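question for whoever is on the cluster today: can someone run the full assembly for these? two chains, 272 residues total. i dont have access anymore since they changed the login thing
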Amino acid sequence: MKPFVLHPQLERDTVPVGDLALSRVLLMNDANYPWLILVPRCEGIVEIVDLAEDERRQLMQEIAETSAALKALTECEKLNVAAIGNIVPQLHVHIVARRHSDPAWPKPVWGAVPAIAYEPRVRDGFVAALRGRLGV
Amino acid sequence: MKPFVLHPQLERDTVPVGDLALSRVLLMNDANYPWLILVPRCEGIVEIVDLAEDERRQLMQEIAETSAALKALTECEKLNVAAIGNIVPQLHVHIVARRHSDPAWPKPVWGAVPAIAYEPRVRDGFVAALRGRLGV
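^ ran it for u. tokens below:
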């Protein structure tokens, strides 16, 4: 099996939070919304259905864990969970905490408004809180 | 437990395909893209993480089944899988077969272009093929 390499666009747009059993957890560097990305560390996988059954089960478990962490830390009004991948083919699942007051609501976040980079201190504090919740 | 009632907007925008163990399978009446929606028949559930663990596992299984059926029937180039629900709060998962030539590519489909209703004969043929693949 080839080693896992994160897609360069995901590398560029995110900061690492840590590794769960299956997925690398990334924070999108976009202060518009609390936005995590799960990337199963399986080289060459594009679609959820391409994962093995036990990997899919683990991915769902990790979607639930990161959703619960985001919900608890952000008190968001809605979660958006999506595997799209039309531009970056490496399988990745977006978990976005939405608020009625966010700049894209009620539209989906993709392509809605330009990203705003986090203040480093805010970003580091959020990443630390996420690591605490997720145990990574 | 309250009986399951499909949200009126989902009722209006789709045609029923059939029921899997957990989810009702719907076909979006939009000929722009082959587009299924899974609605777990659990009254009052908004987020994936609100489902019980065995229900989440079953939902993932049904995402894989419907993804495989869509992929086989449409020979699509990409699948988009998403639980958004910013407008319709009843938990529902979109499974959209995308082609590089479709009218929204590479953008997500939500809000991209107006829906085009299927020709009834095309729709009925597609629903029949889906039922055959899914065994519903």
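summary bc i know u wont read the tokens: The longest helix of chain A spans residues 53-74. The interface with chain B takes residues 46-49, 53, 56-57, 59-61, 63-64, 67-68, 71, 78-87, 98, 105-108, 110-111 of chain A (CB under 8 Å).
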